[in-house]
Every structure is written in structure tokens, then in C-alpha cells.
TrEMBL record:
<dbReference type="InterPro" id="IPR024434">
    <property type="entry name" value="TSCPD_dom"/>
</dbReference>
<dbReference type="Pfam" id="PF02867">
    <property type="entry name" value="Ribonuc_red_lgC"/>
</dbReference>
<dbReference type="Pfam" id="PF12637">
    <property type="entry name" value="TSCPD"/>
</dbReference>
<keyword id="KW-0547">Nucleotide-binding</keyword>
<dbReference type="GO" id="GO:0004748">
    <property type="term" value="F:ribonucleoside-diphosphate reductase activity, thioredoxin disulfide as acceptor"/>
</dbReference>
<keyword id="KW-1015">Disulfide bond</keyword>
<dbReference type="GO" id="GO:0000166">
    <property type="term" value="F:nucleotide binding"/>
</dbReference>
<dbReference type="GO" id="GO:0071897">
    <property type="term" value="P:DNA biosynthetic process"/>
</dbReference>
<dbReference type="Pfam" id="PF08471">
    <property type="entry name" value="Ribonuc_red_2_N"/>
</dbReference>
<dbReference type="InterPro" id="IPR000788">
    <property type="entry name" value="RNR_lg_C"/>
</dbReference>
<comment type="function">
    <text>Catalyzes the reduction of ribonucleotides to deoxyribonucleotides. May function to provide a pool of deoxyribonucleotide precursors for DNA repair during oxygen limitation and/or for immediate growth after restoration of oxygen.</text>
</comment>
<keyword id="KW-0846">Cobalamin</keyword>
<protein>
    <recommendedName>
        <fullName>Vitamin B12-dependent ribonucleotide reductase</fullName>
        <ecNumber>1.17.4.1</ecNumber>
    </recommendedName>
</protein>
<comment type="similarity">
    <text>Belongs to the ribonucleoside diphosphate reductase class-2 family.</text>
</comment>
<keyword id="KW-0560">Oxidoreductase</keyword>
<dbReference type="GO" id="GO:0031419">
    <property type="term" value="F:cobalamin binding"/>
</dbReference>
<feature type="domain" description="Ribonucleotide reductase class II vitamin B12-dependent N-terminal">
    <location>
        <begin position="39"/>
        <end position="130"/>
    </location>
</feature>
């Protein structure tokens, strides 16, 4: 059935009657909200440079400052400062919702104009109250002059021909250019062990991966704010599988060797581009035959791509071991379980599922796409801490309807993708805040009760989605590919229903949800037989990075709480470190009185964990287990949660199983094997500090130890060379008896001090003296020793620039505002001292390379767009004097009193002040002393944190993935 035939046939059907559930009749959703104006100013914490500014944007008063900042910077359309620029949430939501409503009317979804209006009001209410969010491409594109792309996830295909391979490069490039990601399976390409028709030997897929990787890297460096997101999959029976497994493993060894030789191999480093295969996630597609051979210790055949014949046999356990060793060394490859994936495939008559999107949650036909939306689970928690299943089901109903409507007007990056998506109408509804919900309900993430609750919610979500899909099929027709796949699709619906029947509930809350889910699956099976289905797929669990912040979620996707503390932005800049607000609610649910709750929360604020918290029973510790920290979840806890939810998803789950640095290859083998046995569709692991190309905090880690070992080895080498041949010995250049000196008084966050600096006759710095604290105090003694050490280093030829680069941005207390107009903010006394020395003794070119400017130079930049000094003409000083008084540098680290914190219904909970705007990842490092392996955000420079199999920046909402 074609799309046109489907819609024509639907005209005879009764259209949708929309029930009003959330909004109030006779009152527009906007009129129920108190709105306020805010100034959104975003700075790069490293340089202090303002990267974005829009004043007077309008948001509901209950939206956090962080949510409004991210939505303003990411989703408002139009050039800043022009009339076309959106200035508030109302314009953004109207742009999207009115487009959806108009398309619904045009395509015959609604029974009447009144039903269309109710749909518009309900969707608006859900969005402005942060009950759900569409994926980012919807906010970027819908209702604008740009192509109306609504999908974030794409799967491509490539065949064994040069035309197809080159077309793969082109299509992937267009998708990357649009800021999305794609995945594909390379297994159709002949291996390097097979012959071409001309008689030569084929290049093999790994060779062509090299070209695609370079293309992705080029597009990234051409202006993207994050690296290209892509997934490359190879079947385990491909003759080049071992070469594929070793690609990133070998490159990681190369990165380490180059780093030890002095090259810049950090993420974004100038030398990292010389390393290959870094722009993709790699996955091996394993089948049941291989996994059983691993269990039994038997051989496994690698097959020709041309005729399927076995051309080589390998020991299955040895190959599985090599896969696990590679994952241990560099986190790649992950595994995708082919037979499990295709056993739950609703369209097998059309073709097999061979690949996934970059984050592994969307798995469907080649040349297809999926648009996503996620619900905020915490919004459905009643005052009595039970989950409101009926209200949740109603929300799912509205959202699925809207998502299906979007396919009617959506644009796609390639015609094959557009054709497949319009014919099969794959959707990806999901949720966020599961970790926060379970904690608030007093349920441990790694507990039978927590898994039962998550399973029943997931089952209800997908069951309601397919029920609504069957109802839509009665109105506007089933998807075009349904007829040929009807038997298979209904078989999968019965599998979902059977899995729901197998769930064992443990308490009243999950029993209520399970009962409603059971009713929904019964309707799905019955309606499907009669109407068919509008959508081939309905649900996935995506990372929900940026949109999670839009909804003010504590946790992303299926993830547990990352930590028990997080940061909250303040009006005027800076942040507060606060204890997650679900914790007091959880403690109350567990039966603790107000006094004990306060004591426990205070303890968590200070220590970052619950171990030995006053009055907290050890049996309740599991409720507060997190992804990182003192009581981090066991790896199998993550796997079991995924296994509990997987039978109720059309697609899969974006999630990485995190392992400590001490984890062994055997543990990784166990995780991969158990994931297969438990019915997961895909598994990815990450061992702490396994990659070099990442920034590490002072907590340490393997990369840091490797660097120290390399330094020691280098020192030994130098000693050996000096013994053989004395080439150079440093000499000390002492200062003259009488020298020019300057004394500077300063104050950093209220801590006063004095700095005296002496110079050589040529004006170069030769000594410093720092006076802090009372004479004879420990602090004064340490400063004297430090001053002598730096002075001797300067006199032996250590460049001042080296000291400045090492000691600026060093963070410790006291930190904050200074009394120096040239250095308005300082992260520590050392940070201030060496910024001041740079301004006093370094030439402009060297300072500018370090991002250090005087107040006059910053003002000049505001006036002329350049920091360069004015030419030394007769009226230069007059021109400087004529400039307005220099504005203070953008400040993001002001400690603001609690009465100016943005409105929050949970305000007043115990907080710990912090004078620098940190992410939760950085706060956790500060509390625990352990590093969090995450890249720095390429937009604002703050440290990102894991979200599914990607990373998300809590400062500006940027993600490293495709969602």
C-alpha cells in the first residue's frame, strides 16, 4: 500500500477525538504560567570570553536558569540582535506545535477543528511544563525556512561496489554537515582475503573505513562544534574481523607512543588528527552460532562475501578474547547481538536489521531514520510517591500522535532514507530521569524492586504507543510496508505481551503500572489484528543529553544518578553545589524524620556519598548508589537494568557499562557473554582511563601514571647522554646588586597579600617575593620557599611564559573576585600572581597566546573587535582616555546569596557554596579525589559527563553524540 492510497482509504474512517487531560478548557496553557525575563550570557570558563549573549528572554518562572540558557543558545532561531531572533519559549513552542497541528489537520488526523485545538493545547502544556521534549532536530528545524528534518538517527547501507562505497562517503558527509550521526554495516564489502573479478585482491572494508574516517574528521574541523558521530559495524564471520577488531587498539598504542614523544594527543589536540579511526564507534555483530561456539570452545567459520562459503576457521574463544582485549585497551569494539535483534524485528520480509545509529538505540532497516522524543518520568510521581500510570499513558498517547504527524511533513537527507521512513514510519519514544524516579521512590537501581519498576514503566510506554499506533492505522492507514510484514509484526507484539506477563511485581506501585500495561498489550494484540499498525517501530531509550537539560532532568535516559551532588547556576553568574533534590524525598519515603533527613543531607553535601551518614541504615545505602563515587554501581547492575527493560523496546538502549581501571579482560568477557544470555541487543563497555586522548583531573589515572613513567624514562635517557658527552650545563644569571622592582598589593576573595618582583637590566623578570599570612606562620613560610624556588628557576633560564602556562587556571581556595581591574576573577592566589606577572613582564604576543589581556585591551576588543595595542602616535593616549570606562570581564564565578537563586520550588535545601561554575563531574572529582574520564566541551570548555554512550555538557547542553 502506498502512502497516497493509505491516506485516501483513511478518509472513510472516523478521525481522532482528542480528550483534554492536562490543559484547562477555556484557558490557554500560557495563561496559567507566570513568565519572567532573563539575561542569558554564556562564557568560556578558560578565557572568560563571552561566547553568547541575549538579554531579556522570556521563560516560565519555574524553569531553571540552566534550562533557559541551553534552550536559548541551542534552539532559538534567527540571528541574535535581529528582529527575526526568537526571544522567548512561547515563540519556540508555537513554532513547533502549530506546525504539527497544521500538518495533522491537512492529513486527516482530527475529527474536528475543536479536536485539533485541544491537541495543540495539550501538546503545548506538556512541553512548557517539561513533561517531555522532542529530539533536537525538531527544535532546530520545524517551522523554519530550513529543511524540516525531524530525525536524529540514521542508518545507511553500502554494497560491494566502488559506486556504493563512494556514495556512502557522500551521504555520510551530508548527514554530518547537518549535525546528525549515522551508522552502517560494512559486511557486504569483500574482504582483503578475496579476489576481485579482475584477478587482483580486494582492499577490504577496513581500508575503506580509513577514507570515511578522514572525511568525518575533515567535516568536523570545517566548523562543527563537535566531532562527527558515526557507528561502523562488521559481522563476526567476515574474514577481516580480526583486522577490524584491532584497528582502534593499534591506534591507541600509537597515541600513547606519540604522547610520550611529546606530541599533543589530547582530544582536540593539534597532533591527534594524524591518528586514524577516531571518528567512529566500532561494533562487532555477533550471532548465536558464534556465541555458542565461544561457550563450547569450538571453531567458527569466516565466510566469503561472494558466495557464503567458509574460507577460514578460527578458534571462537580466541577471537572472543581478542575482542575483549581490544575493548579493555580502548573501549572498542562493542557487541551487537544479531539473532536477538532480528528475532524482535517487525519487518523481516523487507530486510534484516544489520546496523544501528551511532548511539546504538535505533536499530532498523538500512537507509532509514528515526525521530525521538523522551518523557520526564519524575513529572509523573504523585505526592504519595507512587507512579501515576494512567496520566503517563495519556501523555504517551499525545506524544506518539505528534511524532507520527511529523513524518507527514518531514524532510530527509537522502531520497532512499526518506522513502524508507515514509513507508515504515519508525518512531523512538523513550524517557529520562529513571534514576531520579527510582531514588525518589526509595528503590535501588541495582535491586529487584528497581528493575521491576523500570520494566513495568517501559512496558506501559511501548504498549500504549503501539495501541495508539493501531488506532492511528484505523484513521490514516497502516504503514505502507505493513501488509507484507503483518504476520511478523503481530508475532513481535505477542512476544512483547508474553514478556510483560513474565514480569514479577514486588510492591503496590509497580503492580498498578503492570496492570495497566497488561491491559494495553491486550488492546495492542486485538487492534493490530483488525487495523494493523501505523508505525513499524515505536520506542527506544536514547541518551537524552541536551533535551534532558531542557526538561531539568537529574538523570539521562536509563542511567542511574551520576552523583549525589550537582551544580545549580545562579542569577548573575557562578553556581551552587547542591545535594540532589530527590534525596530528601527518598529519605522521607524510607521513614526518616525531618531532623535525620537534614543531618544526612548535610553529610552528603560534605562527602558526596552516604557511607557512614549519621542515622542512615546500611540496608538503605543501595537506594543512593550512583554511577560514580564511593558507592558506584557494579557493572552487572547496569547490565541487569538494561535486560529488565529491553523486552519492552522496539529498538535498543544507549548505555555504556562503566568499569573501574582495575577491571580485567575476563570481566569484560563475562559482561559481553551475560549480556547475550540476558537478551540485550547491544553492549558497550568503558574501562576507566583506558584512552589517552582525554583530559584527566588531578585525581590521577593510568594516563597520568604513563606520563610519569615516560618522564622518568626520558630523565634516565638524558642522564645516559650526559655521561657520554657533556653538551650543556645551565648557568645562573644573577640579578645586579641594585635592580628595578615593583610591589603590588592584592586581594583575592578577601585574602590580602603583597608581591614584590625584581627585574634584570634588560627588563626581564628575575625574582619574586610573596607575602601572605602572618610572619612566622606556616603559610608565610611556604610562600617564601615557593618564591625562592621560582626565582632560582627564572635565573637559571626557565621562561616566565612556562610558569604562567603552568600556574594560571590552578584552582584552590581562596578564589573569586580580586581588587585588580586587569584580573577581575581569580581561581586561586597562584592564578592571580602569574596573571599579574604576565601582564607586567610578558610582551603582548606571548600574553595573547595565553588568553591574558589587560582591562584596556579587553575594552579595545569591545570597541574595535581587536585586542591589538594602538599604534604609538601622538594622539594614542588621548584616544585611550576617550574610551568609556572599561567594563569588568564576564564573571561566571560570583557567589550569590540564596535570595537571588532562580526560582525553584525546592529552594532552601542544604547547599554548599562553590566559587567557580563547575559541572557535576568536576564537583565529584573535587569531593572524591578521583578523575572522571570525560572530554572538555568544545563550545564552553567545561568538563562533560557521560550520557548513554555519549557525553553531554552541563554548561551549554552540547553533546558528543547524535541526540
Amino acid at each position: 500500500m502506498t502512502e497516497t492510497a493509505s491516506n485516501t482509504n483513511a478518509a472513510t474512517q472516523q478521525a481522532l477525538k482528542i480528550e483534554r487531560v492536562f490543559s484547562t478548557e477555556g484557558v490557554h496553557p500560557y495563561d496559567e504560567i507566570t513568565w519572567e525575563r532573563r539575561d542569558v550570557v554564556q562564557t568560556n570558563w578558560k578565557t572568560g570570553e563571552t561566547v553568547f549573549e541575549q538579554l531579556g528572554v522570556e521563560f516560565p518562572d519555574f524553569w531553571s536558569l540552566n534550562a533557559s540558557t541551553i534552550v536559548t543558545t541551542k534552539y532559538f532561531r534567527g540571528a541574535v540582535g535581529t528582529p527575526e531572533r526568537e526571544t522567548g519559549l512561547r515563540q519556540l513552542v508555537d513554532r513547533v506545535v502549530k506546525t504539527y497541528t497544521k500538518a495533522g489537520i491537512e492529513h486527516g488526523y482530527f475529527a474536528s477543528a475543536a479536536d485539533a485545538e485541544v491537541f495543540e493545547h495539550e501538546l503545548t502544556w506538556l512541553l512548557v511544563h517539561q513533561y517531555f521534549s522532542f529530539n533536537s532536530p525538531v527544535w532546530f528545524n520545524v517551522g523554519t525556512k530550513s529543511p524540516q528534518q525531524v530525525s536524529a538517527c540514521f542508518i545507511l547501507s553500502v554494497d560491494d561496489s566502488m559506486d556504493s562505497i563512494l556514495n556512502w562517503y557522500k551521504e555520510e558527509g551530508f548527514i554530518f554537515k547537518g549535525g546528525s550521526g549515522a551508522g552502517l554495516n560494512l559486511s557486504r564489502i569483500r574482504s582483503s582475503k578475496e579476489l576481485l573479478s579482475s584477478g587482483g585482491t580486494a582492499s577490504g572494508p577496513v581500508s575503506f573505513m580509513r577514507g570515511a574516517d578522514a572525511s568525518a574528521g575533515t567535516i568536523k574541523s570545517g566548523g562543527a562544534t563537535r566531532r562527527a558521530a558515526k557507528m561502523v559495524v562488521l559481522d563476526v564471520d567476515h574474514p577481516d574481523i580480526e583486522e577490524f577488531v584491532e584497528t582502534k587498539w593499534r591506534e591507541e598504542d600509537k597515541i600513547r607512543a606519540l604522547r610520550d614523544a611529546g606530541f599533543d594527543m589530547d582530544l582536540g589536540g593539534k597532533d591527534i588528527t594524524s591518528v586514524q579511526y577516531q571518528n567512529a564507534n566500532n561494533s562487532v555483530r555477533v550471532n548465536d552460532e558464534f556465541m555458542k561456539a565461544v561457550e563450547n570452545g569450538t571453531e567458527f567459520g569466516l565466510r566469503s562475501r561472494k558466495d557464503g562459503s567458509v574460507i577460514e576457521t578460527v578458534d571462537a574463544r580466541s577471537l572472543f578474547r581478542k575482542i575483549s582485549e581490544a575493548a579493555w585497551a580502548c573501549a572498542d569494539p562493542g557487541l551487537q547481538y544479531d539473532d536477538t535483534i532480528n528475532d524482535w524485528h517487525t519487518n523481516p520480509e523487507t530486510g534484516r536489521i544489520t546496523a544501528s545509529n551511532p548511539c546504538s538505540e535505533y536499530m532498523s532497516l538500512d537507509n532509514s531514520s528515526c525521530n525521538l522524543a523522551s518523557l520526564n518520568l519524575l513529572k509523573f510521581l504523585r505526592d504519595d510517591d507512587t507512579f501515576d500510570a494512567p496520566l503517563f499513558a495519556k501523555a504517551v498517547e499525545f506524544i506518539i500522535t505528534a511524532m507520527d504527524i511529523s513524518i507527514c511533513f518531514a524532510d530527509f537527507p537522502t531520497e532512499p532514507i526518506g522513502e524508507t521512513t515514509r513507508d515504515y514510519r519508525q518512531l523512538g519514544i523513550g524517557y529520562a530521569n529513571l534514576g531520579a524516579l527510582l531514588m525518589a521512590m526509595g528503590l535501588g537501581y541495582d535491586s529487584d524492586g528497581g528493575r521491576a519498576m523500570a520494566a513495568t514503566i517501559t512496558s506501559l510506554m511501548t504498549g500504549t504507543s503501539y495501541r495508539r499506533s493501531a488506532e492511528l492505522a484505523a484513521v490514516v492507514g497502516p504503514y505502507a510496508g505493513y501488509a507484507r510484514n503483518a504476520e511478523a509484526h503481530n508475532r513481535v507484539m505477542r512476544k512483547h505481551q508474553a514478556a510483560n506477563d513474565d514480569v514479577r511485581t514486588l510492591h503496590i506501585a509497580d503492580t498498578e503500572v503492570h496492570k495497566l500495561a497488561t491491559e494495553e498489550w491486550a488492546k495492542v494484540v486485538d487492534l493490530g489484528k483488525t487495523n494493523g499498525f501505523r508505525n513499524a517501530q515505536a520506542s527506544v531509550l536514547a541518551p537524552t543529553g541536551t533535551i534532558g537539560f531542557m526538561m531539568d532532568c537529574d538523570t539521562t535516559g536509563i542511567e542511574p544518578d551520576f552523583s549525589l551532588v550537582k551544580f545549580k547556576k545562579l542569577v548573575g553568574g557562578g553556581s551552587l553545589q547542591i545535594v540532589n533534590q530527590t534525596i530528601p524525598r527518598a529519605l522521607t519515603k524510607l521513614g526518616y524524620d525531618a531532623e535525620k533527613v537534614e543531618a544526612i543531607v548535610d553529610y552528603i553535601g560534605e562527602h558526596g556519598h552516604v557511607v557512614d551518614a549519621p542515622g542512615l541504615k546500611p540496608e538503605h545505602y543501595e537506594v543512593f548508589d550512583t554511577a560514580m563515587g564511593e558507592r558506584s554501581l557494579k557493572p552487572m547492575g547496569h547490565v541487569k537494568m538494561m535486560a529488565a527493560c529491553q523486552p519492552f523496546l522496539s529498538g535498543a538502549i544507549s548505555k555504556t557499562v562503566n568499569l573501574p581501571e582495575s577491571a580485567t579482560v575476563e570481566e569484560i568477557e563475562t559482561i559481553y557473554l551475560e549480556s547475550w544470555k540476558l537478551g540485550l541487543k547491544a553492549t558497550a563497555i568503558y574501562r576507566d582511563n583506558c584512552k589517552v586522548g582525554q583530559p584527566l583531573a588531578d585525581g590521577g589515572g593510568k594516563a597520568k601514571k604513563d606520563a610519569a613513567a615516560a618522564d622518568a624514562a626520558a630523565a634516565e635517557t638524558v642522564v645516559e647522554k650526559v655521561v657520554e658527552k657533556v653538551v650543556y650545563a645551565p648557568t645562573r644569571k644573577r640579578l645586579p646588586k641594585s635592580r628595578t622592582a615593583r610591589t603590588t598589593s592584592f586581594s583575592v576573595a578577601g585574602a590580602d597579600g603583597y608581591m614584590t618582583s625584581g627585574a634584570h637590566d634588560d627588563g626581564t623578570l628575575g625574582e619574586i617575593f610573596l607575602k601572605l599570612g602572618k610572619q612566622g606562620s606556616t603559610l608565610a613560610g611556604v610562600m617564601d620557599a615557593f618564591s625562592i624556588a621560582v626565582s632560582i628557576g627564572l635565573q637559571y633560564g626557565v621562561p616566565l611564559e612556562t610558569y604562567v602556562s603552568k600556574f594560571t587556571n590552578l584552582r584552590f581556595e581562596p578564589a573569586g573576585l580580586t581588587d585588580d581591574p586587569d584580573v577581575r576573577m581569580s581561581q586561586s592566589i597562584m592564578d592571580y600572581v602569574f596573571r599579574r606577572l604576565a601582564l607586567d613582564y610578558l610582551p603582548f604576543d606571548e600574553r595573547s597566546a595565553l588568553g591574558i589581556y589587560s582591562a584596556e585591551e579587553r575594552q579595545r576588543h569591545l570597541e574595535t573587535g581587536s585586542y591589538e595595542p594602538l599604534e604609538e602616535t601622538g594622539n594614542a593616549s588621548e584616544l585611550l582616555e576617550s574610551l568609556p570606562v572599561a567594563k569588568a570581564a564576564p564573571v561566571e564565578a560570583i557567589v550569590v546569596e540564596s535570595d537571588v537563586v532562580d526560582a525553584d520550588p525546592l529552594a532552601g535545601a542544604p547547599t554548599v557554596e562553590t566559587k567557580t561554575a563547575k559541572t557535576t563531574a568536576e564537583l565529584l572529582e573535587q569531593i572524591t579525589g578521583h578523575a572522571v574520564d570525560s572530554p572538555l566541551c568544545m563550545t564552553c570548555g567545561t568538563k562533560m559527563r557521560p550520557a548513554g554512550s555519549c557525553y553531554v555538557c552541563e554548561g551549554c547542553g552540547s553533546t558528543s553524540g547524535c541526540s
